[in-house]
Structure formats: C-alpha cells, structure tokens
Amino acid sequence: MIDPDRYIEMKRKRINRALQNALPAAGPPVVIKAMRSSLEAGGKRLRPVLTLAAADTFGVDEHEVIEVACAIEMVHTYSLIHDDLPAMDDSALRRGKPTCHRVFGEAVAILAGDALLTHAFEVLARYGRKEFCAQKAVRIIDELAKAAGVKGMLGGQILDLEAEGKELTAEQIEKIYILKTGTMLKAAVRCGAIAAGASESELVILTRFASSLGTAFQIVDDLLDIEGTAEELGKPVGSDSTHGKATYPAVFGCREASLKAEQFYRQAVEGLDELERPTELLCSLADRIVFRKK
Amino acid sequence: MIDPDRYIEMKRKRINRALQNALPAAGPPVVIKAMRSSLEAGGKRLRPVLTLAAADTFGVDEHEVIEVACAIEMVHTYSLIHDDLPAMDDSALRRGKPTCHRVFGEAVAILAGDALLTHAFEVLARYGRKEFCAQKAVRIIDELAKAAGVKGMLGGQILDLEAEGKELTAEQIEKIYILKTGTMLKAAVRCGAIAAGASESELVILTRFASSLGTAFQIVDDLLDIEGTAEELGKPVGSDSTHGKATYPAVFGCREASLKAEQFYRQAVEGLDELERPTELLCSLADRIVFRKK
Fold first, then answer.
1. Range of the domain at B184
2. Paired residues of B97 in beta bridges
C-alpha cells in the first residue's frame, strides 16, 4: 500500500534539495536571490512530483529524472512570477508571502522569471549530455517548450487577460483551464514518462490521465479560492473573483463545480486501467490532489 | 573575393524568410502579432548571419543550420522587448519604430518576450529531432541557455540596471559589455560552428574571435549613439547617456573609444590566422560590422 502523503512529502524534499543544487552557481546576487526565494516559497511541487511518479510507474528511479522534474518546476515558478507582475494580475501575495516584484522590484522580477525559464532549458541540456539521454532530452525540451508556449500555458495567460470582466461560456472557461494548468501538468507527466522510456501508446494513456487531472485540479483550486480561508491558502480569499476572472464556480456555482471536479477525477483514474503497469501510485496521488483542503 | 555586403544581404533575406516560417502556426493572435512585429522590426540580423557564416567556414550549408540561426535571433529579440519595458530602460523607440509595449501594452510585451524565448528552444528541439542532430542540439541548447542566462546576457542587464548613475571603471564597463553583447555574439558563432561539427580546438579559436568582435561591436554601437543622427540609428541620439549608462565613449571620450574598437577588431581578425579553414568570410564580416555607419 502506498501512502500518497508520505510519497509526496518524500519527493517534495528530494525536489527541494535538487532545486537548490540546480540553481546557477554564479551571477549577479540579486537575481539569484530572487530566483531562489521564488523557488523556495513553499509550493506544493505538484508538477515535479507527478514527473517522478510517472517515471516511478515505469520502474525508473528518481535520480534518473530529477533534472527533468526540476526544469518543470522552474518553468512553473517563472510563470507565477510573471503572472503576478503589476502589468498582469498585480498580485501582492503568493503562497502567503510577498510576490517577487514586491520584494525585489519589477525589473528584477521580470529578469528573475526570464532567468528561471532560461535556466530550465540549461538544466535539461545538462540532462541531455548524460549517456544515452540526448534524444530523450530533445523530446522533453520539445514537450516543455510547447506546453509553456503560445499553444499552452502562455496562450492561456493571454486568453485569461482578455477574458477579464467578460462573460464566458463553459467551453471558453475550460479552454483557459486546459491551457493555463492542463498543458503543464500534462507535460510534467509526459516528460517523466518519456525520460523513463514509455512507449507511444503508454504516453497516450498517461496524457488522457493528466489532462483530466489537470482540469479537476484547477476547479478545486478555484473552489478553494472561494471557500478556503486566507490562512489556509496563503493568498487573499476571493482574489480571482475580485479581478472578474471567469472560473467554474463563478459560472456554475460551487456545487456544480464540485461535481465537475469529481467527474474529471473519475475520468482520470478510470483511464489508467488500460495501462499495463502498476497504477496505484498515480491513482492515489490524483486522489490527494483533487480532494485536498488547500 | 567575397562581397560582405552582398553576403549579409543574402543571408538576411534567408533568415527573415525562415523566421516567418518558424513562428508558431497557432495561438492567441495578439501575442503572435507582437512576436512577429518585433521580429520583423528590421534588425541587422548580425547574430544569425554570424551563425550561418561560422557554419559556412566549415563548408556546411545554411539549410542545415538555419533553425539554429533563427533560435538565436528569437532570443536576441526577446531580450530587446524586455529591455525596453517601462520597468527596465523604458524605451519608446526601437529600430525607428514604437517598442512592443507601446504598441501592444505591457502585459502582451512581457508575454511576447517570454514566448519568443520559449519558442527558440522549441525550434532547437525541432532541429534536434532531425537525423544525427540530437547531441549537437543538446550542446547548442546548453550554449544558448548559458549565453542568455545569469552568467551571460541577463546578468549583464542586471549589472547595467545597477550601474545607472554610478561611476564605473573601464573593467566594470567591459564586463557589462561582454555579458550583454559579447556572450550572445559568441554563442551565435559557436552554435553555428558546433552545428557544423567544429572540433574543440577550432571552437577555442572562434570563441576568441567572437569575444573581441563583440566588444568592438558594442563600442561602435555606443559611438554611433553619440555621433549618429536619429534617422540613421532609428532611436533617439544619446539615449544611452540620458539614462546615465556607463559607456566607453562617456568614460574615455570618443577618440580613445574609437581606438579601442579598432584594437579589438584587429585582435579578432588576427586570431583567426590559427584556424586551418578559409577565414576570408569571417574577416570581411568583422570589418563590415566594426566599420559601419549605423
């Protein structure tokens, strides 16, 4: 029996150590400090944990894919720094702490985000220079760049900005969700599996799993934003709705949104049946991710 | 006899066509438009021309390295967009046209820069998926990420921001120059050579060439900023000095700076003697780059 909480805790520590070591050893102190403090701001490490778990599912040890996991968390953290900027969401708090630009100023925050994005690819190049890893690295770089780019996360951020204050349909909201959160979550799972040597048909199954999980995760995030307390969340409650952002709960109400989340969760987990590998780990992680309290 | 002006013109056209085709085919129109218009704003294409010329020196045709050249120009263009932002240099004009954030707003400009940086690595991954290119691609990604990162261009931008209004020594100015311009120029030459299969000792020679050329280029840039007319340059004359930025001419005077530029140029060209390859092309390009009028 896998205890998902223990697994997450263990991997999170491993990832935090690796992130420390993966940061540039030299460079102007202020930008390194901004990168480090944003990375250390206590994120859930959901994406890199999924990368390690996907590799685990194929019997591949964490030390073989840890660079890949780190790169994904760096890209995620860069996106948070830039999303929080005054010109974007203008957020004062993130994970309960002042946002990067509030601490270091706007110029350094822009550059710290740029630096994390750039450094993620340096970390993947380092992975690719290990024996037999070049071709896998190239595929992973392709996946990550696509997931983070205009057809993925970055495209979602643009749509999100454009949607502020507008009425959206369920389809439009879902599209933003998929782009902003789903594509990176999918990439986290796929990159772990690619590094572990998964076949194309296995990747298809894992992609469906990650897509459904990503949407469920985002709906729960929005529900917690409404229902949670500021203390539990580390950001002002209702901060999404104050920006007039379209969210599932805002459009359908909390009860309907909650049912939707459960439906996506079931889709995610049931799809794994087709995978001829042990799926208990991924299923129990999905459970913890969707039915969380913060 | 190679006519450098004709060579540059020919390669520039080729690069412009390739950049058009290399842009993402889909995505939110506003960000694609911002990426495209920044890329099309009529840059000299100095870096990608050097990439093609480096490959040429090893007898490798442009079509084998054109993705590498495009990726380098994308990273360069991203850095211009972000450097121009209100939180950074707050520039209204670039290459004679309104800067990205003046046309598209700050949020889109930040995202367009992010998107170009991200897309550069997607383009390199695409290159790496061609036959026999994975290992070269991984090395090139490593080079480019390092050159663009905190130990390179981005680090230089931080030092430049920190230097505003301060008195700097010649060594400090040179360090900023090397980081901001030199590392990317060096990467442009090295990546072309790596893609063309250059040996380690050949790379050492080319690196020295590119380093000296980069410094000469930047000094000339600063001199033109003081001496040129706004029309020739496409940006307000003296725009560097109005920000109190440290430049060679500001510290040493124009005459001394001009001598310095010539000295670095000679260093660049003379070092090429050791290369057992035809060096006429690189020498004549260096000549055109340093002794230019705009």
1. 4-290
2. B94
Return the beta strands (E) in B27-155 as ranges: 93-94, 97-98
Distance CA A269, CA A208 (A): 10
CB distance B123 to B150 below 8 Å = no
Contacts of B30 in chain A (CB under 8 A): 158, 162
Contacts of A149 in chain B (CB under 8 A): 24, 27, 115, 118-119, 122
For B116, name the nearest residue in chain A, comparing CA atoms only: A149
- Tens-binned pLDDT, residue by residue, of chain B (294 aa): 689 999 999 999 999 999 999 999 889 999 999 999 999 987 889 999 999 999 999 999 999 999 999 999 999 999 999 999 999 999 999 888 999 999 999 999 999 999 999 999 999 999 999 999 999 999 999 999 999 999 999 999 999 999 888 888 888 888 888 898 899 999 999 999 999 999 999 999 999 999 999 989 989 988 988 776 545 555 555 555 445 566 788 778 889 999 999 999 999 999 999 999 999 999 999 999 998 877
Q: What is the Cα–Cα distance from A268 to A291, expressed in whole angstroms? A: 14
Q: What is the CATH number of the domain that holds A222?
A: 1.10.600.10
CA–CA separation, B13 vs B271, rounded Å?
Answer: 30
How many angstroms away from the CA of B214 is the closest CA of chain A? 20
pTM (two decimals): 0.94
B113 token code pair: 């820069």
Residues β-bridged to residue B93: B98
Grouping H, G, I as helix, E, B as strand and the rest as coil, residue A276 is coil
- How far is the C-alpha of B46 from the C-alpha of B63, rounded, in Å? 18
Indicate the residue type of B165: G
Q: What does the alpha-carbon distance between residue B223 and residue B265 come to, in Å, rounded to a whole number?
A: 15
Burial A232-241 (b: 16+ CB within 10 A, else e): ebebebebbe
d(CA A27, nearest CA chain B) in Å: 5
Distances (CA, A) of B275 to B111, B206, B279, B283, B290: 42, 8, 7, 12, 21
Q: Least CB-CB distance to A138: which of B111, B134, B155?
A: B134
Calpha distance B174→B168 (Å, rounded)? 10
* A28–chain B Cβ distance below 8 A for any pair: yes
H or E element at residue B217:
helix B200-227
Alpha carbon B290 to its chain's center: 14
Backbone angles phi and psi of A26, in degrees to 5: -135, 175
Number of CB pairs, chain A paired with chain B, less than 8 A apart: 165
Tokens of residue A82, six digits? 């830039």
The count of structural domains within chain B is: 1
User: Strand, helix or coil at A144?
Assistant: helix
Pairing state of beta strands A93-94 and A97-98?
antiparallel
Cβ atoms of residues B91 and B235 within 8 Å: yes
Using an 8 Å CB-CB cutoff, list chain B residues near A154. 31, 111, 114-115, 118
Contacts of A184 in chain B (CB under 8 A): none
Task: Tell me how far apart the alpha carbons of residues B111 and A275 are, in angstroms, rounded to a whole number.
Answer: 37
